[in-house]
Amino acid sequence: MLGLRPNCECCDRDLPPDSPDARICTFECTFCVDCADDVLGGVCPNCGGNFSARPIRPAKMLAKYPASTKRVLKAEGCPPAARAA
Questions:
Q1: Strand, coil or helix: what is 64?
Q2: DSSP SS3 for 76
Q3: What InterPro entries does the record point to (predicted)?
Q4: Each residue of 2-35: b (16+ CB within 10 Å) or e?
Q5: Which domains does the chain have, with CATH numbers?
Q6: pTM over 0.85
Q7: What is the three-class DSSP state of 36?
Q8: From residue 47, how far is each of 5, 39, 42, 50 by CA, in Å?
Q9: In this structure, are residues 78 and 40 in contact, taking their beta carbons and an 8 Å threshold?
Q10: Using an 8 Å Cβ cutoff, are 18 and 56 in contact?
């Protein structure tokens, strides 16, 4: 089951469980759409995978299976994506 992490690992922006702006990789690394697209260029800095929109858990299931409250933040921030020359 997805943990639904509460924040962007780069900028610490809040990403509530119903946020359409959350992006995840296959390891559930979580980023906001701005960091995922503009800063990271669509590549997860942790695993090298791509991002997908994080699914939104229905409210009645969220009550039974709550989102994570553990914030994950890269202390060094996220370096800009390497651009091809």
A1: helix
A2: coil
A3: DUF1272
A4: eebbbbbbbebbebebebebbbbbeeebbbbbeb
A5: 1-68 (3.30.40)
A6: yes
A7: helix
A8: 17, 16, 12, 9
A9: yes
A10: yes
| Contact assessment for residue 35 and residue 8, using Cβ atoms and an 8 Å cutoff | yes
Tokens representing residue 43 in the block: 């590549």
Residues sharing a CB contact under 8 Å with residue 64, sequence separation 6 or more, in sequence order: none
Q: pLDDT per residue over 26-68, tens digit each? A: 999 999 999 999 999 999 999 999 999 999 999 999 999 999 9
Question: Could you count the other beta carbons within 10 Å of the beta carbon of residue 83?
Answer: 6
d(CA 85, CA 68): 40
